[in-house]
Amino acid sequence: METIADFEVQYSQFLDPEGKPSADIPALATDTEKLLDMYRLMTVTRVFDTKAINLQRTGKLGTYASCLGHEAAHVGIAAAMRPDDVLAPSYREYGAMLCRGVTMTEILLYWGGDERGSDYAGPRNDFPMCVPIATQCLHAAGAAMAFQLRGEDRCAVSINGDGGTSEGAFYEAMNIAGARKLPVVFMVVNNKWAISLPIEMQTASKTLAQKAVAAGIPGIQVDGNDIIAVRHWVERALERARNGEGACLIEAVTYRLSDHTTADDSSRYRKQEEVEAARTVEPLIRIRQYLMDLGVWDKKKETKLLNDAAAKVDAAVEKYLHTPKPDIESMFDHMYAQWPEQLEEQRQHAIRYGGTNGDSHG
Amino acid sequence: METIADFEVQYSQFLDPEGKPSADIPALATDTEKLLDMYRLMTVTRVFDTKAINLQRTGKLGTYASCLGHEAAHVGIAAAMRPDDVLAPSYREYGAMLCRGVTMTEILLYWGGDERGSDYAGPRNDFPMCVPIATQCLHAAGAAMAFQLRGEDRCAVSINGDGGTSEGAFYEAMNIAGARKLPVVFMVVNNKWAISLPIEMQTASKTLAQKAVAAGIPGIQVDGNDIIAVRHWVERALERARNGEGACLIEAVTYRLSDHTTADDSSRYRKQEEVEAARTVEPLIRIRQYLMDLGVWDKKKETKLLNDAAAKVDAAVEKYLHTPKPDIESMFDHMYAQWPEQLEEQRQHAIRYGGTNGDSHG
Amino acid sequence: MAEVTLIDALTMAMAWELEHDPSVVVLGEDVGVNGGVFRATAGLQKKFGVDRVQDTPLAEGMIAGISIGMAAQGMRPIAEIQFMGFIYPTVDQIINHAGRMRNRTRGRLTCPMVLRAPFGGGIHAPEHHSESTEAMFAHMPGIRVVIPSSPTRAYGLLLAAIRDPDPVVFLEPKRIYRLNKQDVEDNGKALPMDVCYILREGSDITVVTWGAMTFETLKAVDQLARKGIRCEVIDLTTISPIDYETILESVQKTGRLVIVHEAARTCGVGAEIAAIVAEKGIYDLQGPIRRVTGYDVVMPLFRREMDYMPSVGKIIDVIQESLED
Amino acid sequence: MAEVTLIDALTMAMAWELEHDPSVVVLGEDVGVNGGVFRATAGLQKKFGVDRVQDTPLAEGMIAGISIGMAAQGMRPIAEIQFMGFIYPTVDQIINHAGRMRNRTRGRLTCPMVLRAPFGGGIHAPEHHSESTEAMFAHMPGIRVVIPSSPTRAYGLLLAAIRDPDPVVFLEPKRIYRLNKQDVEDNGKALPMDVCYILREGSDITVVTWGAMTFETLKAVDQLARKGIRCEVIDLTTISPIDYETILESVQKTGRLVIVHEAARTCGVGAEIAAIVAEKGIYDLQGPIRRVTGYDVVMPLFRREMDYMPSVGKIIDVIQESLED
Ligand SMILES: Cc1ncc(C[n+]2csc(CCOP(=O)(O)OP(=O)(O)O)c2C)c(N)n1
Ligand SMILES: Cc1ncc(C[n+]2csc(CCOP(=O)(O)OP(=O)(O)O)c2C)c(N)n1
Ligand SMILES: [Mg+2]
Ligand SMILES: [Mg+2]
User: Fold this and answer.
1) DSSP state of D141
2) Identical topology for domains C2-184 and C197-324
3) Are residues A309 and A345 in the same domain?
4) Which of B131, B331, B349 sits opposite D304 (nearest CB)?
5) Same domain as A137, residue A15
6) Residue C97 annotated as catalytic
7) What angle do CA C168, C170, C176 make, to 5 degrees?
8) CA gap C240, D271 in Å, rounded
């Protein structure tokens, strides 16, 4: 027997849960402005998330998927991207979306049952949130193909969860990206759970990073609670992609501290102790500590940040709550460049009965 | 950075293209009766294949997918299986099907446009030939799950081509098989081409065996022109599976010496030299030589085998050509356990017009 | 006898069959420990174990494909797809394999599986969680499509679907999962598929509907009853194959037909019913066949979803219009 | 002007658009070096290079998904699916993304893609190679479905489909790929979608059909013409959205309607046409609306496929029956 191929999966962490460097820190970690920006956004994201859950509880928002505990993974990904790159997220990566310039009001509108939430004023080319799991991996590959064909210096990034790595579309996307050396980065945010299915029951592969081997592209596992690790490796992957070296898979290991969504009750299927243990290694603690150890952060700044964040979130919520319902016609008028004449009767019918059939909030 | 997982892909060959042992030969290769049986079947398969192509050329068969050059891979797989295992093939593995007990007449009926070709008198539980690429991998996984649930000592084997490894279903099947330790073996017969797409353009993964890494199951590449290697490793994989150790992926590397099907013209997209080169390493030469070197085979036996094969094939063809068309009603009567009463009008309509709308051969 | 909701009745039916037929297996995403996102399988894994009630990885095509493989080898899988918006990765397996396993092997291998999925809007669900595309499955030969609209029918029809020797796509109107309760005896008695259920007898007009829309329709009809209008309400129930005899008989009596469904209008199942009556019952008709349906648009997110749906008001108006013909 | 077959006309249209619009890309299995298994893309890669005419790995869901990704980022992909029997892995991407990208982003991102696929039976093809499931796509909001039935329409409609700012499923009746030739000027002129094409004018009965069945229908109608029966033959052409005005006008004139399609009957597109006429044109009808269709069975393997299909004889009989109403 002859060995004809071999592979290694590496793991990277720079900051340990206490915020102490656990490896030679990369250049990025010495740029305190970058770190502070990211930390602030992580905090804002968490404040936003808490508020959104409250809005749902009080009947002012629909079902909502919390991002609690994912802030480093989400912000780290987007912070590594350039504005004219394109993101194809799934449905809970608010840290990434906010970093890309999506507004909180837009996110709330989406979960509040209003399509205008996906009409981002900021990142006009980013894909909207994607509910059908792993389908967006193919959109990212397609976007990357467009960039490659046009000779543009741009990359696409998709994000899906651990659960999404069981879907065929995930592998198909990696395979075409490998075959064509597409400028795309596939992010898997492994938060250990796909609703009630723990990662061990999803797959026999010990890491999700190794799934890259099937596509002949590099795969790496990083500590998804360490924003330095996430951003560093996404930056490296994007650099490779821009150099024409093709796609990468990055697995960011984190934990879903919340229920799956506000419609879920995770106490049915997982132990509180597991959640508590995960809380001690969550991503905000360590970067905050690191910044404090660097002497660039303190209690006062923290208080001010929290206050500012609350104000920002409140303003966004106000704007959301005061957004009138979309017009009835809007359900027709964006279906095609032009609504077909022969279907105009349906549109008129809807307008005639507008608002007569119960009502959703607002 | 820490290495958290590593993988190797091994390659195995026992007989080189000249029929000389290239590695310590396994027990199987010393059992000349087994080898002779397999060699005879490979030869019969080739005679059958040649005849089928002729039938198509003379308008007596529909489009047909030749198995020329795949005989070792196909026969080797089935020879390793037990009768009560289940095979889920794709559409050109006649060597495997004949070994399982499917008749040549059945295969001809299938390609001759008659559903009865899939109603095997022999292996009643084997899946029929499968055209939608890679979908059968999931059927094999499901069959394996049935065996596992019932505590039966049986395994399932699926076969797909290199092209099929680009389909999501292939990965989904491996993933569930890994997660559940299902008694299933996934065979990939890599004949280097998916119609006109060469393997290098299908994927960036250097071997197809390494795709197993994504599912956390073992993967191995074997010389698919070496029937000893194929049978040996499939036997080993089935043994593992029966021991509750779960699924395997085996890549058998061979070459499609024929056009994709009789409807294809491969000179459009590949060089004749490549085909000629592959012809020198094809699977019959080496096992024949090996048997001759062992002193258990000679010219005379070969001539007799070819004559017997031709007679067998001719008899099967005769039977095929004399099989009357299926009844009109048969297109209705196997749709449901019982054809729904409310659709009986359609059935009567078809019967009324039976045979009035042109005719297919025979 | 127990007062149960529609979803409880489904759980009861699965429990009965798991108990009585060792070849029955329940599988799907989150159906085990979690008991299903709608709790249709609540308690089943605890009672029957992880082999009989299995959580699967997240891959609908895989769920369908392994179910077919199992069914062909003698099991009776009941697979749950979490929402109809996620049923599309199963389409290839359902149309290319489930619906033709029996035919293409001339009965040698069969596919006695049930594919369950909640469908329909009106529960303020997120994007992709409110679709009604039963027509796609109704167009597939070899596939039965069944939709229950009451606890009693949910129980009896799910039993029938599981026991059927052929594949059944069993669609559950999630909006009425818990809308009302009925006394359902847990006696293992199946109800017949392939037939319509008449919910109200009447002689003025025939209204055919199914799923959650039976409720809107019954409300409309009850209001009209106060004006002395007697509507015959037919719950189609088995969407394919269609029991058109019952519909034709009704139209023969009433002379008028309205069809109500939540799915988009174009090529919805309503079209097939209209087409059948326009062929076989046209001389009984006193006026146009009308459809009250969802529009030919993507189901809007929830702030406008009710404006998409057929409402009691829309149904009443169309029935009244039809009566003026 | 060149005498070309339907498939030549498709090649011409793609070549024209590849030449004139740099955002157009052709992709699919075997479309490059091999020129497509039916040769629809023959010569295109040689002329426009491997970037513009791309061979993809074997994965239809992938082909659809990356096409959507490309289209949303400003390209105009023309994706080929080798046979309609293999189109089902695309269904998830087509219904859940292609058909709603514009709507869900309120027009921010759009999906100007074409999904081409040969469909239909009658060419002695292997299993899974002869299906007609246009109705499934016609039921999807936001998707246009177009079927050409002549070289001229193939050329003009494919150009229209490529240029359309929204997704088009473009289904090609492979049985008539090379059946006849027409003079088609390669002038880059598109033909209108969303309208029917009238193939024969007549006042006795309206026959609506599409795809390869236009040939069976015209043969039937020509035979009937010898008996003095004047049929109006309408080629539906755009399967969704349906130009029902043209159909209604014709029925107003003729009072009779027969629909012919190859797909299985139940929930086929014929049902939608019948339903529309049974609503909006019922008072014009002098008798039942009849359908001549494939049966509700799996397309048989080829020894019996012609018995599955609507034949000239079946069409003639139904038209004559209708004329007796
Ligand atoms: C194709 C598909 N199937 C099922 C669902 C329902 N669903 C929503 S989220 C989810 C679990 C996803 O898990 P994972 O990919 O790990 O992402 P996470 O929610 O943990 O971020 C499921 C099953 C869906 N949205 N799409
Ligand atoms: C899902 C699907 N897509 C496309 C096809 C058409 N097709 C038939 S065989 C083939 C190539 C298969 O290549 P491979 O998997 O390598 O098998 P081989 O024919 O070489 O044995 C294609 C594209 C198909 N049968 N199924
Ligand atoms: Mg997860
Ligand atoms: Mg191959």
Assistant:
1) T
2) yes
3) no
4) B331
5) yes
6) no
7) 165
8) 14
- Find out whether the beta carbon of B191 lies less than 6 Å from any atom of ligand 2: yes
Locate all alpha helices (DSSP H) within chain D, ordered by sequence.
Answer: 6-20, 44-52, 60-72, 91-93, 101-104, 134-138, 151-163, 213-226, 244-254, 269-280, 305-308, 312-323
Q: Which two tokens stand for residue D30?
A: 């075997």
Domain membership of residue B346 as a residue range:
326-362
Query: Which chain A residue lies closest to C56 (C-alpha atoms)?
Result: A202
What pLDDT is stored for residue B361 in this prediction? 35
**In terms of domains, do B229 and B279 share one?**
yes
Q: What is the mean pLDDT of chain B?
A: 97
Are residues D240 and C267 in contact, defined by beta-carbon separation less than 8 angstroms?
A: yes
Give the angle subtended at the CA of B298 by the CAs of B292 and B304, to the nearest 5°. 135
Q: What backbone phi and psi angles, to 5 degrees, belong to D202?
A: -170, 165
Of D61, D70, D194, the CB nearest to A145: D70
The residue-averaged pLDDT of B184-204 equals 98
Indicate which ligand has the atom closest to the C-alpha of A166: 1
Of D295, D298, D313, the CB nearest to B350: D295
Model confidence, pTM: 0.98
> Which residues are bridge partners to C209 per DSSP?
C235, C260
Domain boundaries of chain D, sorted by first residue:
2-184, 197-324
CB atoms within 10 A of CB A318: 11
Check CB contact of C99 with chain D, cutoff 8 Å: yes
User: How many whole angstroms separate alpha carbon B333 and alpha carbon D302?
Assistant: 17
> Within 13 A of B218's CA, how many CA atoms are on the CB side?
17
Task: Name the 3-class secondary structure at B192.
Answer: coil
The verdict on the CB of residue B224 being under 6 Å from ligand 2 is no
| Percent of chain D topping pLDDT 70 | 100
Residue B359 and residue B318 share a domain: no
Which residue has the least CA distance to atom 11 on ligand 1?
Answer: A194
CA distances from A282 to A233, A287, A350 (A): 19, 10, 49
> Are residues D142 and C297, on separate chains, in Cβ contact within 8 Å?
yes
Of C46, C9, C30, C152, nearest in space to C79 by CA: C30
Instruction: Please indicate, yes or no, whether residues A271 and A344 belong to a single structural domain of this protein.
Output: no
Distance in Å, alpha carbon of B7 to nearest chain A alpha carbon:
5
What token pair was written down for D306?
């012609």
- Cross-chain residue pair A6–B4, CB shorter than 8 Å: no
Task: Give me the total of CB pairs closer than 8 Å, taking one residue from chain A and one from chain D.
Answer: 134
| Complex ipTM over 0.85 | yes
Under an 8 A CB cutoff, do B127 and C108 touch?
Answer: no
List of chains touching A (3+ CB pairs within 8 A): B, C, D
Say which DSSP state C137 is in: H
Inter-helix orientation angle B32-57/B71-79, to 10°:
130
Does residue B4 lie within any of the structural domains? Answer: no
B115–C96: do the CB atoms touch at under 8 Å? Answer: no
Residue of chain B whose alpha carbon sits nearest to that of A167: B172
Distance CA D14, CA D161 (A): 11
- The C-alpha atoms of residue A275 and residue A158 are separated, in whole angstroms, by 27
Q: Nearest 5°: CA angle at B156, between A212 and B178?
A: 30
Top-tier CATH class for D197-324: alpha beta
pLDDT in tens, B198-245: 999 999 999 999 999 999 999 999 999 999 999 999 999 999 999 999
How far is D226 from A260, CA to CA, in rounded Å? 70
- Residue D163 has a CB neighbour count (10 Å cut-off) of 18
B328 in contact with chain D, both atoms CB, cutoff 8 A: yes
Decide if B45 is inside a domain: yes
A65-115 confidence digits (pLDDT tens): 999 999 999 999 999 999 999 999 999 999 999 999 999 999 999 999 999
E strand or H helix at A251, and its extent? Answer: strand A248-253
Give the chain A residue whose CA is nearest to the CA of C266: A343
Chain C touching partners, 3 or more CB pairs below 8 A? A, B, D
- Any chain C CB within 8 A of the CB of D256? no
